[in-house]
Design goal:
The protein has about 400 residues and is an all-alpha fold. The longest helix has about 45 residues, at about 70-110. Helix 9 (about 210-230) packs antiparallel against helix 10 and helix 12 packs antiparallel against helix 17. It has helices at about 1-15, 20-30, 30-35, 70-110, 115-135, 140-165, 165-170, 185-210, 210-230, 235-245, 250-255, 265-285, 290-295, 300, 305-330, 340-365, 370-395, and strands at about 15-20, 50. A two-stranded antiparallel ribbon has the order 1-2. The termini are far apart.
Length: about 400
C-alpha cells in the first residue's frame, strides 16, 4: 500500500494534480498506518485528490533598493514628471489669470460704457457744434464738451448693461460683457454708472451751460428709463432708441450757440434718428435668434420674415437723405439758393445711395448677407453725410 501511495503521489505530481491544502495538513497529522492505507478526506475520511490545471511558474522579481534598478525608478520618475507638468500648468494658469485680471480691469470699465456708441455720439456732437458755429467755442470749451458728453453717454451705456445683465447672460453676443460675465460686480457697475453720469452733467453745466447739460440728462433718462425697459415689451423700442440716440446732437449744437428751435439742429437730429433704422434693423436681423431667446421684443422677432424691418430701413434711408438735402438749402435756417447748395445736394444723395440700395436689396432678399451689407454701409454713410453737411454749413 505504501508503494501504491507513492505511485499515486508521483501521478499527482506528474499530471499536474495537487492535494487540497487542508487535506495535506490533515494527511500529515494522521498516523502513519492510516496514511499508508490511502488518501483521506479533511474530515478524517479518505482525502479527495482534485485535479487543478497546470500553472506556469512565473518568477516575479522583488523590488530592489538599488538605484540602478529600472523597476524601482520607472514609476516614480513618471509620477515626478507628471507632477512637475501639473504644477507647471497650474503655475502658468494662475499667472495667466492674474495677468488677465490686471490687464482687463481698465478694459472692462471701458467696455461697460459701450465705447462704440460713445464714439458715434462724440462724432455727431462735434459735427453739430461745427454746424451751429464753433467760433464761439474756445479750446477749453471743446475739452469740457467732449469730456462731459462722453461721461454722460458712457453712463447711459453702463446703466443699460446693469439693467439688462440677467438678459445679457442668455445671449452669446453679450454674455461676456463685464457684469454678466462675472468680471465686475453689480455694485461696482452701479457706482461707476452714477459717478460718470453725475460728473458728466456737472461738467457740461459748468463748462458749456445749463441747456447742453439738460439735453444730456434728458438723453440719459430716455435711454435708460424708457428705451431699455421697452426692449422686452414692444418693437416700438427702436423708435424711442432712435430719439435717445439723436438727442446728443443738441448737446453740441446748443453748446456752440445754437437753440433748440432752429431748423439746422432739427435736421441734424433727423439725420441721426433716421440713420438708426437701417443700422439697428440690420443688427436686429443678424441677432434675431438670440434676441428671441433672451426675450427681447424686436421688429425681427415680432415679424420674422424681415419685411417690416426692410421697409423701416428703406424709409429711414430716404428720410436721412431728405434731412441732409433740406440742410443743404437751409444751412443757417434760411433759404439759400447757390452753387454750394446744389453741390451739397448731389454729394448728400450720392453718399446716401449705398445705404438705400442695401436696404432695397435686403427687402428683396432678407438674409444675413444682405443685412450685413446694410450694416456696413450704415457705418460709412453717416460720417459721409455729416461731413458734407458740416462743409456746407461753413460755406
Amino acid at each position: 500500500m505504501a508503494s501504491d501511495c507513492r505511485e499515486t503521489l508521483e501521478i499527482v505530481a506528474g499530471s499536474g494534480l495537487s492535494l487540497d491544502d487542508r487535506s495535506l495538513q490533515n494527511l500529515g497529522s494522521l498516523p502513519r498506518s492510516v496514511a499508508a492505507n490511502g488518501p483521506v478526506s479533511a474530515s478524517g475520511s479518505t482525502a479527495v485528490l482534485e485535479p487543478k490545471p497546470r500553472m506556469k511558474t512565473v518568477s516575479r522579481p522583488r523590488p530592489s533598493t538599488d538605484r540602478a534598478s529600472t523597476l524601482n525608478d520607472e514609476i516614480p520618475v513618471q509620477e515626478t514628471n507628471a507632477n512637475a507638468e501639473t504644477l507647471n500648468a497650474d503655475s502658468q494658469a494662475k499667472t495667466g489669470v492674474a495677468a488677465s485680471a490686471n490687464r482687463s480691469v481698465f478694459a472692462d470699465v471701458i467696455e461697460l460704457t459701450k465705447p462704440r456708441i460713445v464714439t458715434m455720439i462724440l462724432v455727431t456732437t462735434v459735427a453739430s457744434a461745427l454746424i451751429a458755429g464753433s467760433a464761439t467755442l474756445t479750446l477749453i470749451d471743446w475739452f469740457w464738451l467732449m469730456i462731459g458728453t462722453a461721461l454722460i453717454a458712457g453712463s447711459a451705456g453702463a446703466a443699460n448693461q446693469v439693467w439688462e445683465c440677467r438678459i445679457d447672460r442668455n445671449m452669446p453676443r453679450t454674455a461676456n460683457r463685464p457684469v454678466p460675465g462675472g468680471r465686475m460686480s453689480y455694485a461696482v457697475a452701479v457706482a461707476l454708472t452714477a459717478a460718470s453720469g453725475i460728473a458728466g452733467a456737472a461738467i457740461l453745466w459748468l463748462g458749456n451751460g445749463m441747456i447742453p447739460a439738460c439735453v444730456g440728462i434728458a438723453t440719459w433718462l430716455i435711454y435708460v428709463l424708457v428705451y431699455t425697459p421697452m426692449k422686452t415689451r414692444t418693437a416700438w423700442n427702436t423708435t424711442v432708441g432712435a430719439i435717445a440716440g439723436a438727442l446728443p446732437v443738441f448737446i453740441g449744437y446748443t453748446a456752440a450757440g445754437g437753440t433748440l428751435t432752429e431748423l439746422p439742429g432739427w435736421m441734424l437730429f433727423g439725420v441721426l434718428a433716421c440713420w438708426q433704422y437701417p443700422h439697428f434693423m440690420a443688427i436686429a436681423w443678424l441677432y434675431r435668434t438670440q434676441y428671441a431667446k433672451a426675450g427681447f421684443c424686436m421688429t425681427t422677432t415680432v415679424e420674422p420674415t424681415g419685411r417690416h424691418a426692410a421697409w423701416q430701413s428703406i424709409l429711414g434711408s430716404v428720410a436721412l437723405a431728405t434731412c441732409g438735402v433740406v440742410l443743404a438749402w437751409f444751412p443757417d435756417g434760411q433759404w439759400v439758393a447757390s452753387v454750394a447748395s446744389v453741390v451739397a445736394t448731389v454729394l448728400i444723395l450720392a453718399a446716401s445711395w449705398p445705404l438705400l440700395r442695401a436696404s432695397l436689396n435686403f427687402r428683396a432678399t432678407p438674409n444675413d448677407k444682405t443685412a450685413r451689407t446694410m450694416l456696413r454701409w450704415s457705418l460709412v454713410v453717416l460720417p459721409a453725410v455729416l461731413l458734407v453737411m458740416t462743409l456746407r454749413a461753413s460755406l
